[in-house]
Amino acid sequence: MSRAAAWAFVLPALSVIGLFFAVPVAAALVLSLTDFDLYALADLRHLRFVGLDNYVQLLGNPLFWRALGSTAYFVALGVPLSLVLSLGAAVLLQSRLARFKPLFRTALFAPVVTTLVAVAVVWRYLFHVRYGWINQALVQLGLPPIDWLGDPAWSMPAIIVFAAWKNFGGNMIIFIAALQAIPDDLYEAARLDGAGAWAQFRHVTLPMLGPTLLMVGILTTAGYFQLFAEPYVMTQGGPLQSTVSVLYLMYEEGFRWWNLGMASAVAFVLFALIVVVTRGLLALARRRGWA
What we know:
Blueprint: H1 2-31, H2 38-42, H3 53-59, H4 62-94, H5 101-113, H6 116-126, H7 133-140, H8 152-180, H9 184-192, H10 197-208, H11 210-225, H12 229-235, H13 246-256, H14 260-287
Helix pairs in contact: 4-8, 4-11, 5-8, 6-12, 8-11, 8-12, 11-14, 13-14
């Protein structure tokens, strides 16, 4: 009787998950094995089963490897930057010397809930070649202005800085909650042993934040793998498509060229990459005793 009652409570949630998650994922997987395009959308008689041809063509497409390289660049620079910013802000706001903590928490979290397009307009102005405040500051320092969004060498770092500023507030709130859960007795014992601020952070704070760092690292990594709105709004793909991410490539294939079979294949390749990297992070965390 108890098992039947448990299933009665769980079944509605499982039904919703199956309807809105499992079924679309299965349909996309089937779609990736076909040549579903605009013609098939008009008449299903044009739909053909092509097997793994979409995946073979994708792996042979130079633009995919360029997009993969851009995505790896976003992940390699963006994830550490976001973690450092969010953890640093959380530690500062949690310190005893901090004042007006609710005000600063709200101000630093505000970019997370702000419309991306609205703040992108502001950042595009900041990065403007002639009128942007950043370049005006460089000129005041005697340095030449930089084409932040037009130069391939600078467009990706500019987007990473924007994405880190936009999203670090959510991780900061998680870190603040984790810091509040660390017992004060540990810091008191460390101070009695003569540990300074850095020693306390290294030997008390970081080990206690291990599981939280793992969770935030996985979520942030998955987020940067799926980076789309930032490069799309800021550069529309960037000069010579230098800032095209894998998700941007999926959008181009699916909604510009209406090659929905290929777009589905891109989605599953991206999913496989996220799974591989996540398993690597979990293995690293197990070595350090965080998982």
